[in-house]
Design a protein that fits this description.
Elements lengths: L1 H7 L4 H46 L4 H49 L6 H11 L5 H14 L12 H4 L8 H11 L21 H22 L1
Length: about 230
């Protein structure tokens, strides 16, 4: 029945605008939830850095291991912050799309016609390629095509290597900057002493706990990207 109606009647612009705004709000809420999770993960990682640093200060025999841990956690924190920044940029783009879409429908109401917007198409193409938004952004792009606001279907999602560009090997200076911020300039020394000393044995359970913590953090980051 709906397909028959579509042949004889054009889609209701008001209904189309409501649906587009509903999809945009849904995407905004998704980004807000992801950003909230990243904020909590940021705070937890800062606590891990502080705890490792304090442990190294209390027990000189563990200073080297503690210094390595702080740098490892600092690298994870850099990744978290980069992803959080990417999501914040995506949210700003999404809000821009909403303003442009509402403006396009307003013009259509006044002039009785609508022109395809290359600006909206460019933003939607960028947003639909993000793993966090792919599904609902594809649905939004279809609605915008029906309304005549955009002319082309959007491309595929960004490849992992493009999303993670620059995240595999954080610059040591960036790690130092993060540690300086959290530890208030008191960077832990990577080496306890230049003299040859017996390497302190780190309990196996401590190493396992550290690896488990890092795996949990990486799991949360991957979950946000999927």
């Amino acid at each position: 029945m709906e397909s028959i109606k579509a042949v004889f009647w054009k889609p209701d612009p008001t209904a189309q605008m409501r649906k587009c705004n509903s999809l945009i709000r849904s995407n905004t809420r998704k980004l807000d939830r992801d950003m909230s999770q990243l904020k909590a993960l940021d705070q937890k990682t800062r606590q891990y850095i502080l705890a490792a640093s304090k442990r190294g200060q209390r027990n000189p025999s563990q200073a080297k291991q503690a210094a390595q841990e702080t740098r490892t956690f600092a690298k994870e924190l850099i990744r978290i912050r980069k992803q959080s920044s990417r999501l914040a940029t995506s949210k700003a783009q999404l809000q821009s799309v909403q303003m442009q879409v509402n403006e396009a429908f307003s013009v259509r109401k006044i002039e009785g016609s609508i022109k395809a917007s290359t600006g909206i198409m460019k933003d939607v193409n960028t947003l639909v390629r993000l793993p966090e938004l792919t599904g609902t952004m594809r649905e939004l792009s279809q609605e915008l095509m029906k309304a005549g606001i955009i002319e082309e279907m959007v491309g595929d999602s960004l490849p992992d290597d493009e999303l993670l560009e620059g995240e595999d090997e954080e610059a040591e200076s960036e790690v130092d900057k993060v540690l300086g911020e959290i530890l208030q300039g008191k960077l832990p020394k990577a080496k306890v002493d230049e003299k040859p000393l017996e390497e302190p044995e780190v309990p196996e359970e401590d190493l396992e706990d550290q690896e488990a913590t890092l795996e949990q953090m990486r799991g949360r980051l991957e979950a946000l990207k999927s």
